[in-house]
Amino acid sequence: MKVYLTISRQLEMDIRDYFSPGDYLPPEARLAERFGVNRHTVRRAIDELVANGLVQRHQGKGNMVLRQPQQYRLHEGAHFTGCLLEQGSLPSSQVICSRLVTASDKLARELGIEPEQKIIQLQTLRHMEGIPRCVINHYLSDPQWWPAIKHFQQGSLHGFLKRALSVELKRESTRLGARAPSNEECRLLQINKSVPVMRIKTRNQLKGSNRIAEYSVSSARADLIEYVVEH
Amino acid sequence: MKVYLTISRQLEMDIRDYFSPGDYLPPEARLAERFGVNRHTVRRAIDELVANGLVQRHQGKGNMVLRQPQQYRLHEGAHFTGCLLEQGSLPSSQVICSRLVTASDKLARELGIEPEQKIIQLQTLRHMEGIPRCVINHYLSDPQWWPAIKHFQQGSLHGFLKRALSVELKRESTRLGARAPSNEECRLLQINKSVPVMRIKTRNQLKGSNRIAEYSVSSARADLIEYVVEH
DNA sequence: TCCCATTTGTACGTATGTATG
DNA sequence: CCATACATACGTACAAATGGG
User: Fold this and answer.
1) Per the database record, which ranges form the HTH gntR-type domain (chains A, B) (predicted)?
2) pLDDT at residue A200 is higher than 80
């Protein structure tokens, strides 16, 4: 029997019984000592856990438990179902970071502005039942909103814009795709590369105008989220 | 710069220039010698190619090239854009197979019928520009349609139903997700496991009734298709 | 800022097991 | 049975990231 597979299974059981998501496994060196094998063999075993999305490696820190083995049966019911049109008005989002950036060519095109202009970037993360499920990058074309926006912490972005700036937004377009997650998405959503993310790109106009005020890209864990379209 | 990454990139270029899908790379030992590195380092480089779906390992035989690197640049423009609501009415679909099957519990639930009943299954594949992009499984709850349906070869299913059976369907629900492709989807869409598929599940009622007449599951290559939602 | 201990990441070397033809 | 080629496992060393003093 392959050593790394038996170790991998033992670690799975350990995780189930003694660890919680967010915990760090013992250092590889210690595990190697405990199992009486070389550190490479432990690494190979942990590779399996990483490939199965159970564990995430953090250089210099350790190997973090993402979730329990019995929880990672994908696509077996118990999905969350989101509404496709609620983007930006989600009440339970939390701001990860917000800053002024210069618009890339691509972003400028989406926002209908000239490249190199300053825009506001806002990154929010949405949890449900304590699990991060969706990360959204909002791009706002009007840098004059910055003094107000930088105090936005959590809740509904569109609600905040209305309250703080008397601005109302109207959906102009919605595009829908899927792809393998970026490294940053893996980190924020606590997944690994094998779990696709669904991506929703929306453009929102200022109400009563046809200028694009906001462009947002949402990435949702495809193993936990399913969207419904309203008819 | 990390050695294994530069080797991996060199191998990608070699594959593009000198290898065809189905070819075998030189043995790892030879590559190690050629690059002046240890065999483990070559293995690590090939791991990257395997993870990107470029190469498959065959113990005792060698490492087989699956496809060319330039084919797998994902999400770099030149997407096809589909409309989310056109399912079943696609004119350019081609029937892969059609048959009478017994409904599983899951399908019965979706169709609102009892399990074990006979239903019609229709599998269609949609090409665009010669590339298979979307495979759809249609399930029709009324087996009496079978004599007519079994002659359906290509075109719009909903159009055919209207012409041949005077039946009109109306969308009742649309659900949207993404996941890694099944083996069958890999085969039909000519992709490998690293390319996610977007899945659209729809339920269609008989017009003027609320019985579900059709349940369909569409799987589209997420690297080539983006859907737009009409407002 | 800098140093240091800890921990993961990369790279080398060697040996043996296992599948293929 | 044999040669070839990939798979696993041992060992060693140093690089790179992290966090605390």
Assistant:
1) 1-68
2) yes
Name the average pLDDT for chain A.
Answer: 83
Of the candidates A171, A175, A196, which has its C-beta nearest B178's C-beta?
A: A196
Give every CB contact of residue A36 below 8 A, 6+ residues apart in sequence. Answer: none
In chain A, the domains with their CATH numbers are 3-65 (1.10.10.10), 70-229 (3.40.1410.10)
- In total, chain A counts a number of residues equal to 231
Higher pLDDT residue, B121 or B126? B121
C1' of nucleotide C12: residue with nearest CA? B38
CA angle (A159 as vertex; A156, A165 as ends), nearest 5 = 130
Closest to B142 measured CA to CA, from B216, B214, B202: B214
Cα–Cα nearest to B87, from B213, B199, B212 = B199
Confidence of residue A17 (pLDDT cuts 50, 70, 90): confident
Residue spans of beta strands (DSSP E) within chain A? 55-58, 62-65, 80-83, 93-102, 118-128, 131-140, 169-179, 197-206, 212-221, 225-229
Mean pLDDT for chain B overall = 83
Q: CA A60 – C1' D17 distance (Å)?
A: 5
Both tokens assigned to B184: 């069958």
**B40 or A149: whose pLDDT is higher?**
B40
Q: Please give the Cα distance from B57 to B149 (Å, whole number).
A: 43
Whether A178 sits inside 8 A of B174 (CB atoms) is no
Instruction: Report H helices in B36-136.
Output: 39-51, 105-111
pLDDT above 90 (res B151): no
Q: Is the pTM of this model over 0.85?
A: no
- C-alpha to C-alpha distance for A42 and A64, rounded to whole angstroms: 15
Please enumerate in sequence order all residues whose Cβ is within 8 A of that of B180, keeping only pairs 6 or more positions apart, or say none.
A194, A196, B193, B196, B197
Query: Residues of chain B with pLDDT > 90: what percent?
Result: 39
Phi, psi (5° rounding) for residue A45? -65, -45
Task: Report the pLDDT value the prediction gives residue A197, as an integer from 0 to 100.
Answer: 93
